[in-house]
Protein 1
Amino acid sequence: MYDLPAIRKDFPLLEEFIYLDNAATTQTPVPAVKAMEEYFYKYAANHGRGAHRLARMTTDKYEDARETIASFLNTDVTGTVFTRNATESINMVAYGLQWHPGDHVIVSIVEHHSNLLPWLRLRDHGVEVTVVQANEEGVVAPEQIDLALKDNTRLVAVNHVTNVFGSIQDVRKITRIGHKNGAQVLIDASQSAGHMPLNIKELGMDFLVTPGHKGLLGPQGTGVLCLRDPDSIEPMYLGGGMVSSVSIDSYQIEASPARFEAGTPNIPGVIGLGRAVEYVRDTGIEDIEKHETILAKKAASLLAEIPQVQVYGPQNRAGVVSFNVRGMNPHDVAIILDQTRKICVRSGYHCAMPAIQSVGLKGTVRASFALYNTMEEVEALVETVSDIATLVA
Ligand SMILES: Cc1ncc(COP(=O)(O)O)c(C=O)c1O
């Protein structure tokens, strides 16, 4: 059974705030914070570099976290790499692939800047980039990807769920289409990991990226890059911890995942992330998806009943609801929500300017849901937006 009161006890901040900014970052549950505290107070040391017991314990805990995450996403441990965030994961792929002038990349218009700018920059190296359009609800038709494919398409990079509209892309079909032509496929799962079931082996994408600090409930400064074939990219960073031998004339790079984790990683963060993913797993990902979807659909339909409010995105949405109050700046709406009821939402472009502009907007108010939100919080949001709307009626 989905025990919402018990879940909420693990997120003390929710006693005071109505936190609906989960697409930006989520709260971290007490057991994950405790796991980090335990690291600092009981066994803190560096990863992978010591014979002493603290170093061994740190390494074991860090690697346990990797196993937890790989198993949760159903992917190989060797292809599960810890990064700082989704942005770093994507840049590691953009830098790690060997590009040649004339190569072709397909992205969509409804990407977060993190999954757009690293690809647009490749134009400086003679790579051609096609940006496929989405419909006005933010859904990318797989057929559009198919149409954009060329003989020289090397990579298709699209989101799983848009952070602006909450629309869900058919990543299974998109992956199949990309592979049909021999292209690799990168899926930005920043808004889906921890919010809905994700099975990398079954979906078959070549690269899956996610931050640790959103649906996976980990701390900021954590991210994951999952690679189907770890040898398909070169490491972006070189340094300690990722080489087996070094001389002035040559060096031997370790196998993945060490190959991609040069330098001291965010050890406490990864340990906290591992514990947070256990929390998500034990809560039940299907139940989480169901819960968040019910809240988001209810929020979208109630907000749409307010005459001055326009809601964006599809009916069949993940836990993200973007809207505007006609005649009001989204930032003003967000400030009033906070000041009157301590409701925390995001406003503006959501780091996705082309996506927002593609539907003729200059920003939205965005409420986004996580496993701990309640229907009462949805009602508080709707009531307050309704009051705000009377200011411009
Ligand atoms: C769809 C999407 N991709 C990428 C990112 C970037 O995540 P991070 O800030 O962890 O790099 C975000 C963050 O909001 C996002 O929503």
Protein 2
Amino acid sequence: MAEVADVQVTWRVPVHELLDMLNRRILTLFKCIRGRRLKTYRNVSTSWSPVGAAFNARPRRKADLFGKNVGLFGVHELSSPVGFQVAQENALKETEQLVDQACRTSPGPQIVQIFDRLSDCLCRVADLADFVKVAHPDPSFREAAEITCMTIGTAVEKLNTNIELCNSLKNLLNDKEALDSLDPETRRVVNLNVQMLDLNNSFLLGTHLPNKIDQNAIPEHIHHYFSMEKDHIHINGLHADASDDLVREAAYKIFLYPNPEMLHCLDQLLACRNQLAHLVGYESFAHRALKGTMAKDPETVMHFLTKLSEKLSKRTEKDFCMMQEMKKKINPKCCELMPWDHPYYSGVLRAERFNIEPSLYSPFFSLGACMDGLNLLFTQLLGVSLYVEEPEKGEVWSDDVRKLAVVDEAAGLVGYIYCDFFHRSDKPHQDCHFTIRGGRLLENGEYQLPVVVLMLSLPHPTKSSPTLLTPGMMENLFHEMGHAMHSMLGRTRYQHVTGTRCPTDFAEVPSILMEYFASDYRVVKQFARHYQTGQPLPQNMVSRLCESKKVCAAADLQLQIFYSVLDQIYHGKYPLLKSTTEILKETQEKFYGLPYVPNTAWQLRFSHLVGYGAKYYSYLMSRAVASMVWKQCFMKDPLNRAVGERYRREMLAHGGGKVPMFMVEDMLQKKPSMDDFVDALVSDLDLNFETFFMDSE
Ligand SMILES: [Zn+2]
């Protein structure tokens, strides 16, 4: 299938969406830091490759007193916190020039290019600052970055109301009638956008607020599970893992007790989103949000979710039965399975059946071993290798950040990954991929190399051992490296569609695919060696780990379907036919199976409604695609270079610059049906009988 050129895709984007593009917080960085000579790290252990050795070594304090401070990410202004102001002023000056240029340029593809540069110019500062304000250990850097974020934010708001700029974009559209009505409309859109930002913030804040209750309302013997303030008990979560049924029940009923203000806030948020969507010509918010995605429209999403739910129902029922029996066994008095039981009893069942002890695995998963594994995999499959490069003075924000150069065997350097892997106080405890600078074709024909940061929160190495990863941490590392490679190998013309800047329901495909590699023994055996003895990880330990993930997995999937359907209905046809709580109750009964509990409103804790409005299904759909790609392309031989190259060419290279479904079809070399999507997810739950028999021997 022919590729749809970036420029055409962008051209079809209406004015408001182009303005959105500016508004979007996309991480990019400004100074080109390519072309430095590669240096390899001093090899501290003979048993690992240079990459593995570097990650298993303890970070060294650098005592370079006289070297020149090159600034964060090699951006010389950022050698000190005041540099943010300089960088920000430069960006605003450049923005002014670009806006001027945009207003003077006659309609044509050049306008699109100017807009991409405009977006690049603002984002590379604002989003670098966005990263620094959460990750830098020095408070003065964080504060300076915070101010820059706000200043650029205000500038973007102003741009959004710049009529002249709108006009220049508007001229791109041929529809005369639409043009005439655009100005007041654009203003209204901006106003609604601002209103929506406020509502988003209030809702998001509210989803995390604790609920309090008079201490006498709760049996005294469970008081110590919760925090107390005077004579009130504060409940700030579901306590889903508590072993006492009563604790979970109390937490569930109190934490989810409906707050009238929040109910109102959600109603307003949904109304505002709908209004905005209508104003720019869509039937509903979901229709607007799903434009350009793999699913394309809400009908397809609902079709996918309904079909998946049907195919899953028997397995889900079985899972709930097992949980129910377990509950009865442990607590014969109360036996009906309730929503607060699901996470706890599935955990009990998993432990009973497989008893996976993470500490037995982690000596085989030293960080260096895992990085070795990733390097081997990428080299064999994609022809790109990782090289540890010594950062220059001032280039990184913490001594333990490692810099990786990603080098293609034919094309040479393709980008940089900064690995901020270790735990620090003040650092957000969340695995994350940040695009610091997006790849794009420069005016002089060269390619601006992508720069990303991978942030994890791993334990530090100790005197006696390197950092050892649990199986979960290892899988996360592979997942995040999947995002990083998506960014590294993207070769789009524009930065606003590069790498992970693609439709939400496609964005997780490369990262989830890496999880399949991480659980295949042919891949794992290449790197999982005991850090002391060099012994390989036994095959049956890997198989048991894989099988353990399937325990109650149907019920877990069912819960995700329920959330996704709820999100679709809330953002679908407006006005809603019933209250959000009544819709929750109905959807829960139809798509989940465990009873709704009166006087609860789980939707008020559904924080993803803000960031993933109408797109919560994305993760399920990405997983379905990753599963199809794994089974049809890689499962036979996960290290096959020809298939790896096809994957790179058909999927990774395009970012958001190609219709996502075409990428899937070109990779699979066929057009998958809805049944294929659904079957891919369901068949992942099938037990592997070989492991089963191996286990019972
Ligand atoms: Zn991800």
